[in-house]
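Milestone 3.1: sequence recovery, worked example.
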């Protein structure tokens, strides 16, 4: 097994888990926070928009089964790359779209993929998703983990807030 990690921010982490969790080669998808300046932030602190963190998912995957490039491609179908101020019904800095890279190879893959997307003509607006180096990842509180499994009705309601329609429109 060739274990690697990927970290993506694209709105509420509740809705970011499911699309990745369903892929072959995924070992785990954990909800959490990264990119900020406060150690061990709580959900309430992140929601206050004062810590600099984004809600993120940390994906541990077997790179022999699914590549980082494939994960980035999935990311583009679940996060609106043209909205720098949040995602769908989720507004604010903690919901901005960011690809956090762990090394130069991931950075290059993410940047190339972003450029391809920008040149594809798929969007009328500019691609504003940030590509930044990974910072420490903090695991979110237990009640945020596997939210779609624990709270299927609430998950469906959150999905209908715009993400499901976006995914349908942009799925290949």
């Amino acid at each position: 097994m060739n274990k690697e990690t990927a970290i993506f921010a694209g709105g509420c982490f509740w809705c970011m888990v499911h699309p990745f969790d369903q892929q072959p080669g995924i070992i785990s998808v954990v909800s959490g926070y990264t990119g900020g300046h406060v150690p061990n932030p709580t959900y309430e602190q992140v929601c206050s928009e004062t810590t600099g963190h984004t809600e993120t998912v940390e994906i541990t995957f077997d790179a022999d089964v699914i590549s980082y490039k494939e994960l980035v491609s999935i990311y583009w179908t679940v996060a609106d790359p043209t909205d720098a101020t949040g995602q769908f019904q989720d507004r604010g800095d903690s919901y901005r779209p960011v690809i956090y890279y762990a090394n130069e190879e991931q950075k290059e893959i993410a940047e190339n993929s972003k450029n391809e997307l920008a040149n594809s003509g798929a969007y009328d607006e500019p691609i504003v998703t940030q590509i930044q180096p990974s910072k420490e990842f903090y695991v979110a509180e237990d009640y945020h983990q596997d939210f779609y499994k624990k709270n299927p009705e609430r998950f469906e309601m959150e999905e209908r807030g715009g993400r499901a329609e976006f995914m349908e429109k942009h799925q290949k």
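The chain has one domain: 3-170. The beta strands are 3-9, 26-34, 54-62, 86-87, 90-91, 98-101, 130-133, 138-139.
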